[in-house]
């Protein structure tokens, strides 16, 4: 179980998150973190990962984040930042091997080699496994970043824009795999996403941020409503049930009027659950 309560974050004197409380997340949940640019998605992900200071409560398995030591937290929690791994002379295979040994995974060399090869094959990276990172495209480096997050088989997976540099095929491959892992191995995932339809397809819960404040959170169908999306993203939309059973968002046109104030965004169907 993961509980996120009353999170406030400052960068210097400027406050970026204001009292953000998310729905309780349990084994098998994937929460999509949505919002326009500068909404606070990455800031919240950094707080959850423990890489940025915050005020509030983050409880994982009933224990406060601060009560975990760095190694204990890293054992169960993996964070994939928005920026892909740096361009360098390191090879993807070397990078994964070094990360696994730094994490002190209890694997023999043969077991680790098999695990790395499996990850690289699943993510379409086998052909570039021995190519320097600086020779890879941004999308390929992003996939290497995902492999780095998954190599420890985490129980809590934090993904900040995991598909931003990928084409449609690989976006679906990545999110299919995350959904498959959560369904079959358990655990919890939180993914900051821009694509509303992908969020609707793969996430059973959503949280919508705007200017550092929580606008709506709860089951996917309760959050993806035309009224809330129009007010937050300043577009006219039509939401209907797609052929696969999840909401399908059609963006009709941009709105010319300025965005309404946050106080007008509260909707009974989008209360925190």
Structure in words:
The protein has 9 helices and 12 strands. The longest helix has 18 residues, at 168-185. It has helices at residues 41-49, 70-76, 92-102, 109-122, 138-150, 168-185, 196-202, 220-223, 226-233; strands at residues 2-11, 14-20, 30-34, 55-60, 63-64, 77-80, 156-160, 188-192, 205-210, 213-219, 235-241, 247-254. It is α/β, with parallel strands linked by helices. The chain is globular and about 55 Å long. It has a 6-stranded mixed β-sheet with strand order 6-7-8-3-9-10, sandwiched between helices. The protein has one domain (2-270): P-loop containing nucleotide triphosphate hydrolases (Rossmann fold, 3-Layer(aba) Sandwich). Residues 261-273 have low confidence and may be disordered. Helix 3 (92-102) crosses helix 4 (109-122).
Condensed summary:
The protein has 273 residues and is an alpha/beta fold. The chain has helices at 41-49, 70-76, 92-102, 109-122, 138-150, 168-185, 196-202, 220-223, 226-233, and strands at 2-11, 14-20, 30-34, 55-60, 63-64, 77-80, 156-160, 188-192, 205-210, 213-219, 235-241, 247-254. It has a single domain (2-270), classed as P-loop containing nucleotide triphosphate hydrolases (Rossmann fold, 3-Layer(aba) Sandwich), CATH 3.40.50.300.
């Amino acid at each position: 179980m993961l509980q996120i309560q009353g999170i406030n974050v400052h960068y210097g004197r400027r406050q970026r998150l204001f009292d953000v409380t998310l729905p309780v997340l349990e084994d098998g949940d994937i929460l999509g973190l949505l919002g326009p640019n500068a909404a606070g998605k990455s800031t919240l992900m950094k707080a959850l990962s423990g890489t940025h200071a915050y005020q509030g409560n983050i409880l994982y398995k009933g224990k406060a984040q601060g009560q975990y030591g760095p190694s204990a937290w890293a054992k169960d929690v993996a964070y994939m930042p928005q920026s892909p791994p740096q361009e360098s002379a390191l090879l993807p295979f070397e990078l994964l091997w070094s990360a696994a040994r730094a994490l002190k995974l209890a694997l023999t060399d043969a077991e680790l080699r098999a695990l790395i090869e499996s990850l690289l094959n699943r993510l379409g990276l086998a052909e570039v496994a021995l190519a320097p990172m600086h020779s890879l495209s941004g999308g390929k480096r992003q996939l290497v970043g995902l492999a780095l997050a998954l190599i420890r088989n985490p129980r809590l997976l934090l993904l900040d824009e995991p598909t931003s540099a990928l084409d449609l095929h690989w976006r679906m491959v990545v999110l299919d795999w995350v959904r498959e892992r959560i369904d079959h191995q358990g655990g919890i995932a939180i993914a900051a996403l821009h694509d509303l339809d992908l969020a609707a397809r793969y996430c059973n819960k959503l949280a919508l941020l705007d200017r550092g404040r929580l606008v709506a959170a709860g089951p996917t169908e309760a959050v993806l409503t035309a009224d809330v999306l129009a007010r937050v993203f300043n577009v006219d939309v039509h939401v209907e049930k797609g052929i696969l059973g999840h909401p399908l968002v059609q963006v009709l046109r941009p709105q010319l009027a300025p965005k309404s104030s946050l106080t007008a965004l509260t909707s009974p169907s989008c209360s925190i659950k």
